[in-house]
Amino acid sequence: MSLQQAEPISVSKSVEKMSTYGDHPPSQFIVKETQFGSIDTSPPLGPFPVIDISHFSNSSSQEATLQLEKLRSSLSSSGCFQAIGHGISDSFLDKVREVAIQFFALPEEEKLKYGRAVNESEGYGSDRVVSEKQVLDWSQRLSLRVFPQNKRRLNLWPQNPTQFSEILDEYAMKIKNVTEVLFKAIAKSLNVDEDSFSNQFGARALMQARFNFYPPCSRPDLVLGVKPHTDRSGITILLQDKEIEGLQVRVDGKWYRVPVICNALVVNLGDQMQIMTNGMYKSPMHRVVTNTERLRMSLASFIEPEPEREIGPLEDLIDEQRPRIYRNVKDYGAINYECYQKGLVALETVKSLVFTSVCFPDN
Ligand SMILES: O=C(O)CCC(=O)C(=O)O
Ligand SMILES: [Fe+2]
Domain of life of the organism in this record (predicted)? Predict the structure, then answer.
């Protein structure tokens, strides 16, 4: 079967329906033994610091220096931390979760008015099928482009609940502000010009909002909510469920739980920041486990450079001790998608020639 025809093999019943009836997950969902280890629903809590990012706006204070040091150490080891002091109120974050859950509670026919078309990435639906070998995720998603504003496909934005669009719009603006603070802080932590990253992302950087819904699953030991992956973004800001854990991040070959910290935003770097920092900061591998009892939701905001813009390792982060690891690339999103279809690791394919010949001497 060609890749273009891959999508119709998706199972006939939605994950939500199978969850309601307590079905045993079909074989397409069963995770086989992989190089990333078997499913452990309760590994240890991870070394992901809580960083108060409010100090980054007043960067000369002693506290700012301390938080910057935490930022540097988490991004160069795990690539992940939890941000507090982001200025978004608890009550507003509750509203965001509430409209998301209200949308998911609508009847299937209503949600399918915003259905994702085959071979498209935006809209409501289940895991996108790109290859026959793919193990399917136990999740339903609603993906919407929020920036640049004129690229919004408003016909896919739910009208029910009525406040949905207004709240998503406000949330997206706030997240944009958070990322601007983070880009400057990340630059500062690496001793490079504070606009280094915002310049590479560009004024028309993309933001994709993905609402993830993970209905209860009868076999959390066999099925994943999201299979192991790194994000193709530059940076991802994740609003977790208020109560239900599920996210795990891999550090030095071991899986760790990311705890629920009420109203903290989980920040993880994506592949494109690993490229821009010449590998100094990490795009962590992560996955989501399911549970038998309760629905879990999350909202991931993926921020990516303008696809037409060439990005690459900052010159200031390349020297004799640290030669260039990655080549410059354009439209990493497309590279990543193609690699995903072929079962390749996208970051490995964009290594500079020197590194390619070290890693793949037969090429
Ligand atoms: O649901 C989560 O906690 C993480 C979701 C995720 O990794 C993603 O959408 O890329
Ligand atoms: Fe992710």
Answer: Eukaryota
